Amino acid sequence: FLLALLAKPSVVVLPVVLALLEFWRRTGWREIARRTAPWFVLALVWTLLTSRTQELTPEARAQLTPLWTRPFIAADAIMFYLKKLVWPVDLVAVYGRTPLVAINDPFVWFTLPLLVIATGMALWRRGVVGFAFLMFEVFLLPNSGLVPFVYQQHSTVADRYAYLSLLGAGLGVAAVLARVFAQPSPARRKFAMAVALGVSAVAAFLSFRQTLVWRTSQTLWENAVKSVPDVALSRANLAAVYMKQDRREEAIQECRRAIELDPTFVR
Q1: 184: which DSSP letter?
Q2: CA distance to 102, 114, 229, 250, per residue, from 107 (Å)
Q3: Which is it for the CA torsion 207, 210, 211, 212, positive or negative?
Q4: Given this model, what pLDDT does residue 53 score?
Q5: If we measure between CA atoms, which residue out of 242, 239, 247 comes closest to residue 265?
Q6: CA atoms within 13 A on the CB side of 168
């Protein structure tokens, strides 16, 4: 756990996942506390240490919304990742979904109630799929927007924040498949196998196509600007790429567009 914290501080929520796992196994609360206490102590110490080094920039502070809105921003982020998990298209380096952008989306006010209901159902049913859903949620919490962080000046959501949560997604898919393949009907098992192979093939194709986007800095930022055009950071990074290629006119155009989008942005 300590080595994981040194590699990626967002793994600080692992003790919560372990406590949930013991809860699912119907372990008593005292025993859960005894088993997970050392993990929570280390997580608390690490949280205090890293919080001192994460001072917000003025640009990040400008994106802050009232404290009462943060649960809605966090719920919006989790719903965003769920949508991308089900429909993984238009994946970009910077999404530009800052707290101010999220809070101006009318749908954001429905995300928290929906998430609370889904979480309550998962806790009540205590199934493997429910545990997988909670694991997905918990691993997203450190970078969900409940606690402000520097990158929020550009976006609350980013693909890299969902890496650990994909453990929960994988567990959920495995649980569903295990249940289907346990059916006595051979026809159902064959149908489930065909669907699983089809989905895997589509996912493999999308993954291959995404590697082409990440092939060079130019393809990365041109794709970002094409998919989400109103992000100053993407425009500025594309301008830097063009400058290195001595494409000055195109670089100037991108810089001007970045300034129009965010006059306070400094790179």
Answers
A1: S
A2: 9, 11, 21, 36
A3: positive
A4: 61
A5: 239
A6: 26
Burial class (CB within 10 angstroms; exposed 0-12, middle 13-18, buried 19+) of 91: middle
Q: Please count the other Cβ atoms lying within 10 Å of the Cβ belonging to residue 6.
A: 10
Q: Within 10 A of 220 (CB to CB), how many other CB atoms are there?
A: 18
DSSP 89: -
Q: Please report which residue ranges of the chain form alpha helices under DSSP H.
A: 2-7, 14-24, 29-53, 58-62, 70-86, 99-103, 108-125, 128-140, 166-181, 186-213, 217-227, 232-244, 248-261
CA 55 to chain centre: 22
Burial 101-135 (b: 16+ CB within 10 A, else e): bbbeeeebeebbeebeebeeebeeeeebbbbbbbb
Tens of pLDDT, residues 13-64: 999 999 999 999 889 999 999 999 999 999 999 988 887 666 777 777 777 7
**Each residue of 169-228: pLDDT tens digit?**
999 999 988 888 888 888 888 888 899 999 999 999 999 999 999 999 999 999 999 999
- Tokens for 106? 């009318």
On whether the CB atoms of residues 96 and 59 are closer than 8 A, the answer is no
Q: In the block, which residue shows the tokens 């895997």?
A: 200
Between residues 125 and 140, the one the model is more confident about: 140
CA distance 254 to 240: 9
Q: How far apart are CA 248 and CA 25, in angstroms?
A: 62
Structure-token match 């921003």, residue found: 73
Each residue's pLDDT tens digit, 239-250? 999 999 999 999
3-state secondary structure of 24: helix
